[in-house]
Amino acid sequence: MKITVDLNVLLDVAQNRVPHYQASEGVLHRARTGEFAAVLPGHALTTLHFLIEKWSDTALANQTIDGLLRDFAIHSADKANFQRARQLPLKDFEDAVVAAVAEATGSQYIVTRNIADFSGSPVPAITSAEFLEELAGLEAE
């Protein structure tokens, strides 16, 4: 199984956002251990670095990005992804780019906290908690 992880899941963990931290951290931890493949949109890393550096410091921002680069597949959006995103019926262009990346990488889900933002996405959106429940169901089979 392969998923694309939305920026808000990364921020839930980086900023210890309660009540979302636990489920988001669970998804990232299980991806790091190789239970499934996880793709991060390349543009999410630049935004994440900027935000962590702003609310904390450069060292933590660098450390966070280095860990993500070590443990996750990164898919940079290219012209074709941006063109595909412009064709999608999503209100927010950044969300459309995430959806285009998910489609291009063959992801089964976009793991996000904002499912409604991905209405019209070619790849279904699911919350971190819902994804963990689905994994538990697959393990029980």
SSE inventory with pairings:
Blueprint: E1 2-5, H1 7-14, H2 21-32, E2 37-41, H3 42-55, H4 58-71, E3 73-75, H5 79-87, H6 93-104, E4 109-111, E5 125-126, H7 128-140
Parallel strand pairs: 1-2, 1-4, 2-3, 4-5
Summed up, the helix count is: 7
CATH superfamily: 5'-nuclease
- Level-1 CATH class name: Alpha Beta
Mean pLDDT: 96
Number of beta strands: 5
Distance between the termini: 15 Å
Features:
single chain, 141 residues, alpha/beta, Rossmann fold
Can you describe this structure?
This protein is α/β, with parallel strands linked by helices and 141 residues long. It has a single domain (2-140), classed as 5'-nuclease (Rossmann fold). It has 7 helices and 5 strands; from the N terminus they run βααβααβααββα. Strands 3-2-1-4-5 form a 5-stranded parallel sheet, sandwiched between helices.
At a glance:
By secondary structure, the chain is of the alpha/beta class. It has helices at residues 7-14, 21-32, 42-55, 58-71, 79-87, 93-104, 128-140; strands at residues 2-5, 37-41, 73-75, 109-111, 125-126.
